[in-house]
Design brief:
This protein is mainly alpha-helical. 71% of the residues lie in helices and 0% in strands. It has 2 domains: 63 residues, Tetracycline Repressor, domain 2 (Orthogonal Bundle); 126 residues, no CATH class. The longest helix is centred in the C-terminal third of the chain and has 35 residues.
Length: 196
């Protein structure tokens, strides 16, 4: 793709994403049509289809963009202890969505976010668990459970920032305890096999 074409594609995709953000402030994703989205973005339907297959594809692209600097799972757990790695914890992404609040409120958000994470190397918890002997399915279930729980707590809590910091600390301790228990069980099994 030539430089001019790339700029045009980026500009067009940006316009379509902005249009979807505007429409999501008024209605659910399932109720948004390609025609409506194209009109809002000031692009033709054929131009839309050059870049996206449907409004859900646009939504997924927005989630990828919005969540691109989310911390690896293990770093998120230690963020309540004052450790400040580069990036945002998932709970901050959810609680401080600003203009992206309609994206986060959409029922598809958590699934789109989890799919986005599967495409990255940010599964440090996944690697920790599989290296300890858990199957891929078991490790993925634990990671999904953690993210789902964090999402539910961050979305449901009406706590102010100070209260949320305390809640997050308790949740982090709970998660770390669970991880430690999972690793201890595997270590105990390995030790039993060695002794047998």
């Amino acid at each position: 793709m030539a430089k001019g074409e790339a700029k045009y594609a980026t500009r067009t995709e940006g316009a379509v994403k902005e249009a979807l953000l505007a429409l999501l402030a008024k209605k659910q994703l399932a109720d948004i049509t390609v025609s409506e989205l194209s009109r809002e973005a000031h692009v033709s339907r054929s131009t839309f289809y050059e870049h996206f297959g449907n409004p859900a594809d646009v939504y997924d692209a927005i989630v990828r963009d919005y969540a691109s600097d989310t911390l690896p799972l293990m770093s998120q757990i230690t963020c309540s202890d004052g450790f400040k790695p580069k990036g945002r914890p998932f709970c901050s992404l959810v609680r401080e969505a600003g203009a992206y609040d309609p994206v986060v409120r959409e029922g598809r958000f958590l699934d789109a976010f989890l799919e986005k994470r599967e495409d990255t190397d940010q599964h440090d918890l996944f690697a920790l668990l599989t290296n300890a002997g858990y199957t891929n399915a078991q490790a993925e279930a634990i990671c999904s459970f953690q993210m789902s729980g964090c999402f539910a707590a961050a979305r449901s809590s009406a706590a102010n920032d100070e209260e949320w910091a305390q809640i997050r600390t308790v949740i982090d301790r709970f998660i770390l305890g669970g991880i430690a228990a999972c690793l201890a069980v595997k270590e105990e099994r390995l030790q039993s096999r060695r002794e047998a």
